[in-house]
């Protein structure tokens, strides 16, 4: 699989704003105003969405129990990732869309939970 193939797969799956910028492909979930995520080739296809909020430890633990994607903290941001074998990409993209939606909703509550700490 090439990055061009990856970009075409994302477009076929209905992701918006697919843009090739080697070594990454950028795309958005549900339309042009949706959060952006990246896809790259790394022992399969690595899908990553970043949230500019730090998820609480309890949320990270709960996510590990109930979800396929992985949440981690990288440089103070929460990253949602899903590593997919290339042959399984078409089947995994609807799962990725659902994970992004769930994580986006959760990120709103994480941010609200920080308001008392940071005066937001």
UniProtKB/TrEMBL annotation:
Superkingdom of origin organism: Bacteria
Protein name per Swiss-Prot or TrEMBL: Tir chaperone protein (CesT) family protein
């Amino acid at each position: 699989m090439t990055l061009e193939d990856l970009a075409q797969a994302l477009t076929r799956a209905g992701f918006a704003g697919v843009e090739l910028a080697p070594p990454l492909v950028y795309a958005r979930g549900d339309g042009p105003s949706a959060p952006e995520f990246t896809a790259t080739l790394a022992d399969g296809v690595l899908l990553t969405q970043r949230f500019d909020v730090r998820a609480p430890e309890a949320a990270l633990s709960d996510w590990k129990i109930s979800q396929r994607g992985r949440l981690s903290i990288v440089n103070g941001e929460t990253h949602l990732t899903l590593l997919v074998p290339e042959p399984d990409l078409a089947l995994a993209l609807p799962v990725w869309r659902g994970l992004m939606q769930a994580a986006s909703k959760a990120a709103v509550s994480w941010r609200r939970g920080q308001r008392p700490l940071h005066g937001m």
